[in-house]
Design a protein that fits this description.
By secondary structure, the protein is an alpha/beta fold. It has a single domain (2-15, 48-279), classed as 3-Layer(aba) Sandwich (Rossmann fold). It is 43% helix and 16% strand. The longest helix has 32 residues, at 2-33. The model is unreliable at 18-46 (pLDDT under 50). Bound molecules: adenosine-5'-triphosphate and magnesium ion. Magnesium ion binds next to α5. Magnesium ion (MG) binds next to α5.
Length: 280
């Protein structure tokens, strides 16, 4: 774990000596634009009442098998995600951020598990709603981990055969909406670089001020999908798992986007079963 923290410190130092002016001005402009995310009035919440969204049932046993715990306050591990939520929301509020990418240097770091738990935890914070978007088009896992069957999915939206309201689902939890894929797609990089995706991200970001949109992305060092998307998303949460990435890989992946966009790093699969540790 020390190795990972050292890698992050090294990249931070290098970047602050190389581009301190840029990072500073970037943050300043963000601060000026920052807005309060509390609900302006209840109409907005009403508007987000999933009138048009298909509600799907979740099964506790299935969720826990896939390490999805944030829905259950009796599960001690869910506290980790509530802590992460508090830190993430504070930083997003300060910077006027509403969209967050979750990625990692290499595969199998626990991105999808963190993304689902964090989206659930945010939805339980009554001032916010959350939307989880599965943009790991080649290995989509959100629907599998949640145990939801999709009639229409992100695949149909991307094919142009369905509109957004038809492909959203609401797990039976207030203020949480999911946009998931049913099956993997080829040519994911081209799709994710398309105007349709750019418009979708913009629309999801702008529609509700109190909504946090979380994008579950592939690892940054394996395919360029995440790189195509990162410029369009406000901030990046990096998930690093014990034993899955080398120090070099962590350093390389942190250099792929501006330092000012890094909201934090989650150390997953930490010692014993402690789940996650958070650092930025
Ligand atoms: N804290 C943890 N401790 C132990 N195992 C974990 C932990 N978090 C996730 N896992 C397990 O690691 C595996 C990979 O998790 P997950 O699918 O979330 O990773 P990912 O980074 O999204 O993978 P991919 O790169 O394929 O998208 C899963 O089997 C998951 O249950
Ligand atoms: Mg994943």
């Amino acid at each position: 774990m020390e190795r990972i923290k050292q890698a992050i410190e090294k990249v931070k130092k290098q970047r602050s000596s190389r581009s301190a002016g840029f990072a500073h001005s970037h943050l300043q402009s963000r601060d000026m634009k920052s807005t309060t995310h509390s609900l302006q009035n209840l109409d907005e919440l009403e508007d987000f009442s999933y009138k048009y969204t298909r509600v799907v049932k979740l099964q506790t046993e299935h969720l826990e098998k896939h390490r999805i715990v944030a829905f259950n306050k009796n599960n001690v591990l869910s506290m980790n995600f509530d802590l992460l939520r508090t830190q993430v929301l504070q930083k997003m509020r300060e910077n006027g951020w509403r969209t967050m990418a979750i990625t990692s240097p290499t595969p199998e770091s626990g991105k999808t598990v963190v993304a689902i738990n964090l989206a659930m935890s945010i939805a339980q914070q009554t001032n916010y709603s959350s939307m989880l978007v599965d943009f790991d088009l080649r290995r989509p896992k959100v629907a599998t981990y949640l145990g939801i069957s999709l009639e229409k999915s992100l695949n149909d939206f991307l094919d142009g055969t369905a509109e957004l309201p038809d492909v959203l689902v609401s797990p039976d939890m207030p203020r949480l909406v999911v946009l998931a894929s049913k099956h993997p797609v080829k040519k994911s990089s081209e799709i994710l670089s398309s105007n349709r995706i750019a418009e979708l991200i913009k629309d999801l970001r702008e529609r509700y001020e109190s909504r946090i949109v979380i994008f579950d992305l592939p690892p940054v060092l394996v395919i360029d999908d995440a790189l195509a998307l990162l410029p369009q998303i406000d901030c990046v949460l990096m998930v690093v798992a014990n034993g899955t990435s080398t120090k070099r890989e962590i350093e390389d992946s942190l250099r792929l986007f501006p330092a000012a966009k890094l909201i934090g790093v989650v150390f997953n699969k930490a010692e014993a079963e402690t789940m996650t540790d958070y650092y930025y």
